């Protein structure tokens, strides 16, 4: 779940962290994506299960059964009332799939340095992405983050403050940028030698890249 509450994705009241999976399973999380479906006589009947909340385990099972390598960028959200339990449960779940080594298709992202430190202690080989919200945070963070950690700045900061991005590549830092949705922003990333972009429009980004 990305949001704190249910208003945007389930049109319901409630704070997600106070609910259990059984309660969430009673809600519809997907019909808003196709609001005119009931008026389309030719639309195939949907499976109600597809409108339920997608658990992380189900997502990992889908990836494991895909028959090809699919990489996952999993963000742990903070602050949360559950603190370090979030990272511990995540690492335990990845371990169930044998995905805590250096060949894991998953990488763990967070704006919380403390959260990534927890992951480092429990699964030192898994790739970690230190998300950076403000450009001026980087001078402080670079003294603390692991040498192998990936840096994840927002595209707005790279657009408005190109200095940090230009310093990261010569330092052999892998860079994953969020959220890149336009040709102009993608070009900024290409000019900086960015390794990966996170986008709301992946098909469009692939088209621009000629992939």
Structure description:
It is a single chain. The chain contains ten helices and six strands; from the N terminus they run αααβαβαβαβααβαβα. The protein has helices spanning 7-10, 21-24, 56-64, 85-96, 113-122, 138-141, 155-160, 162-168, 183-192, 202-209, and strands spanning 72-75, 106-110, 127-132, 150-153, 176-177, 196-197. The protein has a four-stranded parallel β-sheet. It has a two-stranded parallel ribbon with strand order 5-6.
**Low-pLDDT residue intervals, each spanning 5 or more residues:** none
The biggest sheet amounts to: 4 strands, parallel
Strand order of the largest sheet: 1-2-3-4
Our estimate of the beta-strand percent is 5-15%
Order of helices and strands: HHHEHEHEHEHHEHEH
Considering DSSP H and I runs of 4 or more, what fraction of the residues is helical? 25-40%
Question: How many β strands by DSSP?
Answer: 6
Based on helices, strands and strand pairing, what is the structural class? alpha/beta
**Average of pLDDT:** 89
How far apart the termini lie comes to 30 Å
- Categorize the overall geometry: globular
Query: What's the alpha carbon Rg, rounded to whole Å?
Result: 19 Å
The number of helices is 10
Question: How would you sum up this structure in a few lines?
Answer:
The relative contact order is 0.07. The protein has helices at 7-10, 21-24, 56-64, 85-96, 113-122, 138-141, 155-160, 162-168, 183-192, 202-209; strands at 72-75, 106-110, 127-132, 150-153, 176-177, 196-197. Helices cover 35% and strands 11% of the residues.
């Amino acid at each position: 779940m990305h949001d704190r509450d249910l208003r945007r994705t389930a049109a319901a009241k409630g704070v997600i962290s106070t609910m259990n999976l059984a309660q969430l399973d009673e809600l519809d999380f997907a019909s808003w994506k196709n609001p005119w479906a009931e008026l389309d006589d030719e639309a195939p009947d949907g499976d109600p299960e597809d409108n339920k909340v997608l658990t992380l385990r189900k997502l990992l099972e889908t990836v494991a059964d895909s028959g090809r390598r699919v990489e996952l960028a999993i963000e742990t959200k903070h602050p949360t009332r559950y603190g370090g339990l979030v990272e511990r449960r995540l690492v335990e779940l990845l371990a169930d799939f044998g995905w805590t080594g250096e060949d894991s298709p998953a990488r763990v992202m967070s704006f919380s340095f403390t959260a990534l430190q927890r992951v480092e202690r429990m699964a030192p080989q898994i790739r970690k992405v230190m998300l950076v919200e403000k450009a001026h945070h980087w001078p402080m963070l670079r003294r603390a983050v692991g040498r192998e950690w990936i840096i994840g700045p927002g595209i707005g900061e790279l657009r408005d403050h190109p200095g940090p991005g230009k310093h990261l590549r010569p330092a052999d830092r892998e860079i994953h940028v969020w959220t890149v949705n336009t040709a102009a922003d993608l070009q900024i990333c290409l000019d900086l030698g960015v390794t990966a972009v996170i986008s709301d429009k992946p098909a469009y980004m692939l088209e621009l890249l000629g992939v």
